[in-house]
Amino acid sequence: MHGTSPSLDTTSLSAVGNRRQGPTWDDSTPPQNHWPEPQISVTEDGRTTLKAFDQFITKLSSRCNLSCDYCYVYELRDSGWRERPRIMPAPVRRQLALRIAEHARRHRLERVRVLLHGGEPLLAGPRVIADFTTMVRRAASGAGTAVDFALQTNGVLLSEALLDLLLDLNVQVGVSLDGYAEAHDRHRRGPGAGRGSHARVTAALALLSRARYRPLFGGLLCTIDPANDPVRTFDALATHHPPAADFLLPHATWDHPPAGWGNSEAPYGAWLCAVHDRWRATGQPMRIRLFESIDLLSRGTGGSSSEVLGTMPTAAVAIETDGAVSWTESLNAVADGAAHTGGTVFSHSFDALLALDGAPEDGVGSLCRLCRECPLVRVCGGGLRAHRFGRGCGFANPSVYCRDISTLIRHIALRADQ
């Protein structure tokens, strides 16, 4: 959970939103030459650090059956997946289960969340999924900790047999869907520019929407493309009646800006504003954590559940198929190896990883001067760390999406007052 903030002074939003944030570096903050990694100290100058992990992103498979052109695993700067086992071996799964239980016991965690991820996690097969979930729950029960499992899939391999298994295992299912067929298939295609996946994904969602499987439906993930019609995209998602949906900014940096960047002042912000208005006009038929988090943070009445917002660190860590442990995976957009901790589930406990030197610092005090002085900082938190990166000052920059995020924050604040 991300931090709370004082109520937002909406009278200052217009000036901030109209200030063009170009790729200019804050010379008052020295360049940073280390990749950010968590540590367990809390300072008095506004820097917030992580004390315990409660989310474990588990790569059961290091490969995928789609080739999405915006994928942060396979299509950006990191190439570590090429050297890793295709499926997480049994010894790694066992050791990971023990490490999760060890960490939960040490910090007396009542509940943790394990996200089955990839690649495409369903490529691991039903036996591996069942074995791992059972193993983790058994180990965590000894620490008095409950485990919530969720699986994020592209949907192509979902079947009745797999859904029956996930129902027995009590594993929530999230599905990636980029909207209507043309929008989805522009990016989410088979390997080698193969056929689009929209028809197969919507067929899987029809299965997931049946009364028997509906309790498993966790929600939809949609990656934003300003070339897609925002209202049609929202309506296509709403057709499946998801309990929740999330809209993701494609991972990008100042060195590698997002598609469409520079064509207008805030293409992603304008797109999200249109989605927000449609969401409100249709009675908010599903939860959208990006919009809800902005509203709560702006009012000072709650925190953020979105990694993109707020000033508190995300309590998540990723475990690769070979047992290597990585920090937030968005850092794969920065450089090859940027997300790697150098530790594994065999060499380090999760507490040992938290104590590594050169760990990342979150909070307002860790941001560049431009962000620290901005009245929106308590809401946006400077944006996602990876999106701030640029050669010269490292992470000491505003987000490459600064203009877009500020546009959306201002828009939601104004709509809330209407």
Structure description:
The chain is an alpha/beta fold and 418 residues long. The protein has one domain: Aldolase class I (TIM Barrel, Alpha-Beta Barrel), CATH 3.20.20. The protein has helices at 13-17, 90-107, 126-141, 160-169, 181-185, 198-208, 230-238, 267-281, 289-299, 350-354, 369-372, 377-380, 402-416, and strands at 55-59, 111-117, 146-153, 171-176, 217-223, 244-248, 287-288, 316-319, 324-326, 340-344. A ten-stranded mixed β-sheet has the order 7-6-5-4-3-2-1-8-9-10. It is globular, with a radius of gyration of 21 Å. It starts with 12 loop residues before the first helix and ends with a helix.
Protein topology:
Layout: H1 13-17, E1 55-59, H2 90-107, E2 111-117, H3 126-141, E3 146-153, H4 160-169, E4 171-176, H5 181-185, H6 198-208, E5 217-223, H7 230-238, E6 244-248, H8 267-281, E7 287-288, H9 289-299, E8 316-319, E9 324-326, E10 340-344, H10 350-354, H11 369-372, H12 377-380, H13 402-416
Helix pairs in contact: 2-3, 3-4, 7-8, 8-13, 9-13
- Using the CA coordinates, give the radius of gyration: 21 Å
Q: Which CATH architecture is right? A: Alpha-Beta Barrel
- Give the tally of structural domains: 1
Distance between the termini: 28 Å
Number of helices: 13
Low-confidence segments? 1-42
How much β-strand is present in the residues?
Answer: 5-15%
Q: Helix fraction?
A: 25-40%
